[in-house]
Amino acid sequence: MSRAWMPLYIGDMLADTMHLNATETGIYIRLIMHAWQHQGCIPDDPEKLRCIAHASAFAWKRYCNVLTFFQKTSNGYTHLRVLRELKRFEEISNKRKAAALQKHTQSQSHSHLRSSFLSSSEPRAKQDNSALKVSETLLAHEAKTRPVSNGGSLATAPLGSALRSPPITETTRSSPASITRAEYDARLEERRQEKKASSNC
């Protein structure tokens, strides 16, 4: 995460700097902003500190008491609140990075699984298509070699006409030998019902 912004808790800020005048407050804010950009530290050099605070030599000499908000170390001055906020800032940044990395890893894993599934499905689809073609070929061969009902052979008749049923002529429609006994009785009963209906009219 970028350190382009710094958290500023107004209540705590006002409570800690209520005794400072406008110039001291401005110097203090500039010093903590510099500490935020430099791992919570400011240099132990009066001239550098004056430049950071944008203060004149006279103003810095008069208001350098703002350094009481900082703790002196071997590397300069540190600010405990800035250090605490920087630590919190880094923890949030690391959590967001870990979440983004986990999401990216899961996305790559799903993409890999999908690619593997598609690649494994292609040979199976080809096998199914091959089996279907073989079945169609066998059925066509069986249809060609099956005898036709009129005594001919499908080998000498067109495939479309061989697969269609022979047309029903008036002879076959009226011939008792071409229908079953049940069909014959059903038709006879229909004719009786028709005659009965016409006589009633």
Could you characterize what this model shows?
This protein has 201 residues and is mainly alpha-helical. Among the domains are: 10-78; 170-196. 67% of the residues lie in helices and 4% in strands. It is built from eight helices and three strands, in the order ααβααββαααα. It has helices spanning 10-17, 22-37, 46-53, 57-63, 80-145, 159-163, 170-174, 181-200, and strands at residues 41-42, 71-73, 76-78. It has a three-stranded antiparallel sheet with strand order 1-3-2. The N and C termini lie far apart (100 Å). Mean pLDDT is 78; it is low at 149-165 and 170-176.
N- and C-termini, Cα separation = 100 Å
Helix content: 55-70%
Q: Could you describe the largest sheet, including whether it forms a barrel?
A: 3 strands, antiparallel
Number of strands: 3
Shape: elongated
> How many distinct helices?
8
**Could you give the order of the helices and strands?**
HHEHHEEHHHH
Give the neighbour order of strands across the main sheet.
Answer: 1-3-2
- Kindly estimate the percentage of residues that lie in beta strands according to DSSP: under 5%
The average pLDDT is: 78
Q: Using only CA atoms, what is the Rg? A: 49 Å
What ranges have pLDDT less than 50 throughout 5 or more consecutive residues? 149-165, 170-176
User: Structural class of the secondary structure composition?
Assistant: mainly alpha
Assembly type of the chains comes to: single chain
